[in-house]
Amino acid sequence: MDVLLPIGPVYRVDAGTTAGSVEVDVADDPGADATVSAHSAAGDVRVAHSRAQG
After folding, report:
1. What does residue 35 show for φ and ψ, rounded to 5 degrees?
2. Read out DSSP for 1-54?
3. pTM for the whole structure
4. Do 34 and 9 form a contact (C-beta atoms < 8 A)?
5. What is the Cα–Cα distance from 31 to 50, expressed in whole angstroms?
6. CA–CA separation, 6 vs 21, rounded Å?
7. Which residues contact 48 (CB under 8 A, 6 or more apart)?
8. Non-local CB neighbours of 51 within 8 Å, separated by 6+ positions
9. Percent of the chain at pLDDT above 70?
């Protein structure tokens, strides 16, 4: 699964998978107000910034 986040805010990231890999390409700040959780039972998990600019 891919989770794409807007550029700018700081996030506390909680990502994991039972079978697969985890890739976190955003700054992970444990003290951030915004939390992103992404978990999979089977498959890769990627958390990254969206490249689209509006």
Report:
1. -120, 135
2. -EEEE-SSS-EEEEEEESSS-EEE-S-B-TT-SEEEEEEESSS-EEEEE-----
3. 0.85
4. yes
5. 22
6. 22
7. 2, 3, 4, 5, 23, 25, 26
8. none
9. 94
